[in-house]
Design a protein that fits this description.
The chain has about 260 residues and is α/β, with parallel strands linked by helices. The chain is about 40% helix and about 15% strand. The strands form 2 sheets. The protein has a 7-stranded parallel sheet, with helices on both faces. The protein has a two-stranded parallel sheet with strand order 7-9. Strand 5, helix 4 and strand 6 form a beta-alpha-beta unit. Helix 1 crosses helix 6. The longest helix has 17 residues. It is elongated, with a radius of gyration of 19 Å. This is NmrA/HSCARG family protein. InterPro entries: Ergot_Alk_Oxidoreductase, NAD(P)-bd_dom_sf, NmrA-like.
Length: about 260
């Protein structure tokens, strides 16, 4: 029996696969197209689509533990619900699901609504699972790196409340630990929800100070105008807005 990892070629999925392989686990990496990813020795590539029932049913065969990660897409909830129902059909009782912090609080934001819907589905099906709710990924800071370097301004309007950013590698460490804990347990474990945050909440001024230290020059904080920042993001395309929208929602729930 194996551990199946969805989102296998993404940032979190690939990190988890490497860690599971290092731990000696039997790992299957789910991809939509063959040869799309490069995986560690011993990892089995499985080709399936989360919206294609026959291929996904086959992928879940002989799987003991499932890591479920759904990308932010229009059919995100559909993918998750299909996967959960087929996992239940296959008798899988060991699941780790990657949600988002405060999924039940910012339900007016589509990204949060989708994750919260899946959480409720896991609950309604009474599925033994670990629900991981990570805060804003530190790696998302790379999206504003060019702006910082070009204009010497830290543009994220995170204010004085701050954001407890967390590194994707830390998320992968925790997810891997939970997958192994459940996979190695003699029977299904109780459902738990874990909020994943960094060691401190970084304010706008604190983040600017860190960038100043790294770049060796003064980086100013751009201020707390969330609406103006979101308007500026539109110039970089919808993908940028979609990625940073969850953080904007945590900063200003009215958006």
């Amino acid at each position: 029996m194996s551990i199946l990892v969805t989102g296998a070629t993404g940032t979190i999925g690939s990190l988890i696969i490497q860690r599971l392989a290092n731990a000696g686990a039997e790992v299957k990496a789910l991809v939509r197209q063959p040869g799309k990813g490069t995986f560690p020795a011993g990892v089995t590539e499985v080709v399936a689509d989360l919206t294609d029932v026959p291929s996904l049913r086959e992928a879940l065969a002989s799987v003991r533990t499932l890591f479920l990660l759904n990308a932010v897409t229009p059919d995100e909830v559909t993918q998750a619900l299909i996967t959960l129902n087929l996992a239940r059909e296959a008798g899988i009782e060991r699941i780790v699901y990657l949600s988002v912090i405060h999924a039940d609080k910012f339900t007016h934001v589509p990204h949060f609504t989708g994750k919260h819907t899946v959480e409720r589905m896991i609950e309604s099906l009474n599925m033994p699972a670990t629900i991981l709710r990570p805060a804003y990924f530190m790696q998302n800071e790379l999206m504003v790196q060019q702006t910082i370097q070009n204009y010497s301004v830290y543009p994220m309007p995170i204010g004085s409340a701050g954001v407890s950013m967390i590194d994707a590698r830390d998320i992968a460490d925790i997810a891997t630990a939970e997958l192994l804990r459940r996979d190695r347990a003699p029977s299904a474990l109780d459902r738990v929800t874990l909020e994943l945050v960094g060691p401190q909440a970084l304010t706008g001024a604190a983040a600017a100070k860190i960038w100043s230290s790294v770049l060796g020059r003064e980086i100013a904080y751009g201020g707390d105008d969330v609406a103006a920042f979101e308007a500026q993001l539109a110039a970089y395309g919808p993908e940028c807005v979609k990625t940073l929208k969850p953080t904007l929602a945590m900063i200003s729930p009215g958006l």
